[in-house]
Amino acid sequence: MQLHWTSKSIQKTLIPQDQLYYPTHISRSPFSTEVLPGAADYPHSEILQSNNNNNNVTIAGEFTHFIVQAKDALGNKKNFDGDSQGDQHSAGEQFSIEIIGSEGSQSGKVTYVEGGKYRVDYTLTKAGYYQVHVRTGGSDIYCGQGEKNKCSPFALTVLPGRTVPSMCEGESSLTSIDSVVEGRAGETGIIHVQAKDAYSNNRKIGGDAFILKLTSVTNNTGDMWRTIAMSHILYHTQYLLQEFMTF
Q1: Which helix (H) or strand (E) holds 94?
Q2: Which end of the chain is more exposed for a tag (fewer CB within 10 A), N or C?
């Protein structure tokens, strides 16, 4: 079947197809839609790196934190906290932090910040080497790097804090005389000093200025000797008494 049209100005001809039918929007079309990220998942959720914060090193006793960015199974960044089916509505349930060292384990405190980001806070008091597990749904997160190169767990080194005099320890050298409590006139006494921080961690570097002061009980005069660094963490101080005296 063919359809023709004609008019005073148009001779009889076939009607063009574009004049017979054409696509058009239905009522309320077009309309806007928003695609939201799915539930947070372990393959793409990641630990963020910061120029001002080294996630692999901290100091004993210092408040430390790092940031976790939640992402769904396809790598889309989460925009909100627990806004999709499958999300945990508690920050502590969405991500769990376990810090494991030679002397036991400790958990980190997880707090939601914004934009799908979670802040992890922790404080360790014992110097040493640790493994930090960041998990969601019971699985270590991968940071989008696959299981073989996953970012959790990651290594953490806790360094000793600054030297605290009241925590340092002194002991006599391996001689017949305990130089901490006695000495012999004309002989050199040696006392070893171990530098420690506020949490009794042995210091790993030297440079502390220890001074030994001997004060006579009888004449109240004081003599001082500066210590000599034997190694990075251990010092020894020497004294030489010329006469019998109580200190």
Answers
A1: helix 91-94
A2: N
